[in-house]
UniProtKB/TrEMBL annotation:
InterPro entries: Endo/exonu/phosph_ase_sf, Endo/exonuclease/phosphatase, GPI-anchor_lipid_remodeler. This is Endonuclease/exonuclease/phosphatase family metal-dependent hydrolase. GO terms for molecular function: endonuclease activity; exonuclease activity. It comes from the Bacteria. Pfam families: Exo_endo_phos. Residues 4-246 form the Endonuclease/exonuclease/phosphatase domain. One of its GO terms (biological process) is GPI anchor biosynthetic process. Keywords: Endonuclease, Exonuclease, Hydrolase, Nuclease. One of its GO terms (cellular component) is membrane.
Length: 260
């Protein structure tokens, strides 16, 4: 089973600043993932041609299941409000997505909150600006059948130090009763060793720098597993693509077979 996570940057290329849906589809297709977690995903946004980017990713992979969960209604950096349960079909929206070639038995939306304060963020190369933190959310899918993974989860945590750790712990608690093995995929906005250090019982399935894509110096994107003793990683890589300022993170896993 191939698992992947990709912060799309709403499909924008850092090389030319263009958002091209065909370029996005080609990038996602090249990952050939069975399960793909998506962050910074647009739906109905003018800046990305009003596309449903989760649906584009599902089409690119030939997926049978896909779910977009909005974190906000409106446009990041402009006017927006936190998304609510009834906003599943609202537009324009922005959030996270989860795409699967495998049947899903049950979907779940998990709200994670946001930082109450405006925080400095480097918007351009010249100076930081005070930015209102976006609400954060996760989407979990319990996979049907007897594959090596029981539950997959996609999320994008806050850039606010400390807030992201609180959100990660909140998410782990929400997943206590999820069908194991549980795999959490996403941009956690935490450097490589931190997530497994604060989550007892969870293990990182890949260590690789993912940001920025042209000269990656830090791992912000993660694939973590709870109850991982039944999983064996056969391959893993951080993959540069033609869109986004993040590299995609790809992990191949299989069930550990009993040895005589």
């Amino acid at each position: 089973m191939r698992l992947a996570t990709f912060n799309l940057l709403h499909g924008r290329s850092p090389a030319d600043g263009i958002v091209d849906p065909d370029r996005l589809v080609a990038a996602v297709a090249s990952l050939d993932a069975d399960v793909l977690a998506l962050q910074e995903v647009d739906r109905g946004q003018e800046r990305s041609g009003r596309a449903d980017q989760t649906a584009l990713a599902a089409h690119a992979l030939g997926a049978v299941e896909a779910r977009f969960v909005p974190a906000l209604v409106g446009t990041p950096g402009e006017r927006w409000r936190p998304a609510e349960v009834g906003d599943a079909d609202a537009e324009p929206t922005y959030g996270v997505g989860l795409v699967s070639r495998l049947p899903v038995a049950r979907w779940r939306r998990i709200p994670l909150g946001s930082s109450p304060a405006r925080l400095p963020l480097l918007i351009d190369a010249r100076r930081p600006a005070l930015v209102r933190d976006e609400p954060r959310v996760a989407v979990a899918a319990e996979l049907a059948g007897d594959g090596p993974v029981g539950t997959v989860v996609a999320t994008h945590l806050s850039f606010a130090p400390g807030v992201n750790v609180v959100q990660l712990l909140r998410l782990a608690r929400a997943l206590r009763d999820a069908r194991p093995p549980v795999v959490l995929l996403g941009d956690l906005n935490l450097p490589g060793p931190v997530p497994p250090a604060v989550l007892p019982g969870w293990r990182s399935l890949v260590r690789a720098t993912t940001f920025p894509t042209d000269d990656p110096r830090v791992q912000l994107d993660h694939v973590l597993a709870r109850d991982p003793s039944g999983l064996e990683v056969t391959d893993a890589a951080a993959v540069p693509l033609s869109v986004s300022d993040h590299r995609a993170l790809v992990v191949d896993v299989e069930a550990v077979t009993a040895r005589p």
